[in-house]
Design a protein that fits this description.
The complex is a heterotrimer. By secondary structure, chain A is an alpha/beta fold. Chain A is 39% helix and 9% strand. Chain A is elongated. The chains are: A alpha/beta, B alpha/beta, C alpha+beta.
């Protein structure tokens, strides 16, 4: 039987879609961030976003996992110092695929206020970043906005493997 | 505000912006701090180093590195600053970690940032920079570093290191 | 490591429980690593811990994972530009950091902020103390398993951040308190919000107390844990609730007063027991005292300018630039070169949520500092961690780290 005949028989109880869309929809609405709060941005972007005022739980992301092996999003919240950079790369490597990175705040994106010997001038020097959020620190709404942009990106990715 | 009986061996003393200070030689720093501690200055506030390289003031300081210890008497609420000058050619002085316990980490930080070594310190290793870092960042001749900013003269003057010859 | 620590004397009126543990040499020690990425270390702190079973034998903190080079950065910025960077070392109390720097620069320049600015500074400091303690309370409780208070604390912190935004435009790093005064005057809406906040905060503090203070699990986990005697607190240089929780009433707002704190009617929060529970009670009391000070500050807020009237230090108002040549010159000099304090050095300390937060500045007479050193409360308090933790079990260790309330931005600068 063809799809149209199936529809006539079963009515509007069937939804047809592609596997990629379903997988993308599932992944996008349950992005679990890893707790990678480094400095001030962690208070705004990790604590207040989970808090009652802004509630990232509406988007499925309040389960901030302490272990990177259970997380799929790394929100680099804060300045990355020379000593912390290899640790950041190690945590990123420990996350299973598919994984994404949001670089939160000016310090993670570009080095921010601190253009000096001690701070990595942008976390994209060591990990690939999907969304950048400007601000010092960005408001929790900016973080949610970035998460929504990332969700569109995840849905568009479907089941294609990341290269 | 009561001033302490000035321990022997004080080179100079004075008041700057309302803060009392005395200056001693590095050979006498341990005796001076121990004497001050027994006199009631039990509270150690901080210790740091100032690099006077190329300072433009009219009266240049005696040596390049000036170590500053801030002590406090919790009963009289009086604070006293103890200065020690250390030459560039021989940046060492005795450690006071057994006189004041919090000096332990301050001395490690001063070693890390300025290259001043403290004789008798149990574990003089880098504390803020990675262990394999080369150079002492807070010295005045260590450039601020970071990324060069295109078209910024201000940046080139103080931020980037001079090009290798 | 001497094993006399296992036989530490009990604090008066209370038995300190120690894990059974075996003596040294009975078995192997297990070295484990806490962090730097860890949910309970309050930041990027790495602790290398030697364990005998579950009992801690040594603790070695490894710091530097957030070293930002703030002190070097400030040597490259002008005096007035440095205010922005001071916000970011103890990132839970930015206005208090600004205050230490502003008071130090003002002392060197020989100016004093006008009365309205002084009261606004007190208001911002106390609001910041409340918001810093709210994060401490929320995170310490959630590490011990109490997830409810975390959300309540963030609810109240949102109100403080909304007030910050109203008065300065920023939620967190306000850069509000600057040398010479404050950034801008308080708007009428800010004063309304503050009035409403003061009205409802005592009820909210009572909510936290109802949830935690007599909660048997909370009390069991904090009482008798992490004992720090008064002598050790002075010897190790601890300040803030670490020393007040050991019975010593040392508070810089009363003992080395600044911003007219001695003229307000408030009490220093002190508890004699010296354990984690005492430090918790101290901070709860500090909430209440801060609300008291805020009420008095709001009532006594005088009129007048909010910045010192010194054109060599602060720019003229914009309207003057249209009519006065001298104003234009002052504006130009201040924004291209900036002011230069006379040569000298000064140290000013203020009481932040975690202890003595001080700023030592050295001026060589130029428009950029020679040295700016931040005396960080957390840097010194962290050295007391090993002393408090030896002989306890891992679960107690989490409570002890929480009670030390260290902010790694402050530790590493």
């Amino acid at each position: 039987m063809g799809v149209e005949q199936l529809h006539d028989v079963l009515g509007d109880n069937i939804l047809t879609t592609t596997l990629g869309k379903v997988v993308g929809w599932g992944r996008a609405n349950s992005v679990w961030p890893a707790q990678f709060g480094l400095a001030c941005c962690a208070i705004e972007g990790l604590m207040h976003t989970v808090g009652p005022g802004f509630d990232i739980g509406r988007f499925g992301s309040e389960a901030m996992r302490a272990s990177p092996r259970q997380a799929d999003l790394m929100i680099v919240a804060g300045r990355v110092s020379q000593k912390m950079a290899p640790v950041l790369r190690q945590i990123y490597d420990q996350m299973p695929e598919p994984k994404w990175v949001i670089s939160m705040g000016a310090c993670a994106s570009t080095g921010g206020v601190f253009n000096n010997y001690a701070i990595l001038q942008g976390v994209d020097k060591i990990v690939p970043v999907d969304v950048y959020i400007p601000g010092c620190p960005p408001r929790p709404e900016d973080v949610i906005n970035a998460l929504m942009i990332l969700q569109e990106k995840i849905k568009a990715q479907g089941i294609r493997p990341r290269i | 505000m009561t001033t302490p009986t000035v321990p022997e061996g004080v080179l100079a003393s004075g008041v700057v912006a309302g803060d009392d200070w005395i200056s001693v030689t590095r050979e006498r720093i341990r005796q001076t701090l121990a004497a001050l501690k027994s006199e009631g200055y039990e509270s150690y506030v901080f210790m740091t180093c100032v690099d006077h390289l190329a300072t433009p003031t009219v009266q240049p300081p005696p040596e390049r590195y000036e170590l500053v210890y801030q002590l406090r008497n919790m009963r009289t609420h009086h604070e006293l600053r103890v200065r020690v000058f250390v030459p560039e050619s021989d940046p060492t002085l005795p450690s006071v970690h057994d006189v004041y316990a919090p000096a332990n980490w301050d001395e490690r930080e001063t070693w890390d940032m300025f290259g001043i070594s403290f004789e008798g310190h149990p574990d003089l290793t880098r504390i803020l920079m990675p262990d394999d870092w080369v150079g002492h960042p807070l010295r005045r001749d260590f450039p601020v570093g970071g990324e060069p900013v295109d078209f910024s003269e201000d940046h080139e003057v103080w931020q980037t290191a001079p090009p290798e010859a | 490591m001497s094993d006399t620590r296992l036989e530490q004397t009990d604090s008066p009126g209370m038995t300190i429980t120690r894990g059974p543990g075996r003596g040294p040499g009975d078995g192997e020690l297990l070295t484990i690593n806490f962090g730097p990425q860890h949910p309970s270390t309050h930041g990027v702190l790495r602790l290398v811990v030697d364990l005998d079973g579950e009992v801690i034998r040594t603790v070695k903190p490894v710091i530097g994972y957030l070293h930002t080079g703030i002190e070097k950065q400030m040597e490259a910025l002008r005096w007035q530009q440095g205010v922005v960077v001071t916000d970011r070392h103890d990132y839970l109390s930015p206005p208090i950091n600004n205050l230490a720097y502003a008071l130090a620069v003002e002392r060197l320049m020989g100016v004093e902020a006008p009365p309205r600015a002084t009261v606004l500074r007190v208001i911002m400091s106390e609001l910041t103390r409340i918001s810093s303690h709210l994060i401490w309370l929320g995170t310490s409780a959630i590490e011990l398993g109490a997830m409810g208070p975390f959300m309540y604390c963030l609810r109240d912190r949102e109100k403080v951040l909304a007030m910050n935004e109203e008065i300065s435009g920023y939620r967190m790093h306000t850069s509000y308190i600057r040398p010479g005064g404050v950034m801008a005057d308080a708007t009428p809406r800010f004063l309304e919000m503050l009035d409403a906040f003061i009205g409802e905060m005592p009820g909210n503090i009572q909510q936290y107390e109802d949830l935690l203070t007599h909660n048997p699990i909370f009390v069991e986990r904090l009482q008798g844990v992490g004992y720090l005697s008064a002598e050790d607190a002075i010897r190790l240089g601890a300040t803030g609730p670490m020393i007040r929780g050991s019975g010593l009433p040392w508070d810089l707002r009363r003992d080395r007063p600044y911003c007219d704190y001695e003229t307000y009617d408030w009490e220093v929060a002190v508890e004699p027991a010296g354990d984690c529970y005492a430090r918790y009670l101290v901070r709860i009391k500090e909430f209440k005292e801060s609300v008291k000070i805020l009420r008095q500050a709001l009532d006594r807020l005088p009129g007048g300018p909010v910045n010192v009237d010194d054109r060599k230090m602060l720019p003229p108002p914009r309207e003057e630039l249209e009519t006065s040549m001298e104003a234009v010159i002052h504006h130009f000099k201040l924004f291209t070169e900036g002011y230069s304090p006379p040569p000298g050095d000064v140290y000013v300390a203020v009481e932040s949520g975690r202890g003595e937060n001080g700023c030592y500045i050295v001026s060589d007479g130029t428009h950029k500092p020679r040295r700016v050193k931040f005396r960080a409360a957390s840097f010194v308090n962290l050295q007391a961690l090993e002393h408090m933790a030896i002989g306890h079990m891992i679960a107690d260790f989490i409570a002890i780290i929480g009670t030390a309330d260290t902010v790694l931005g402050d530790v590493d600068r």
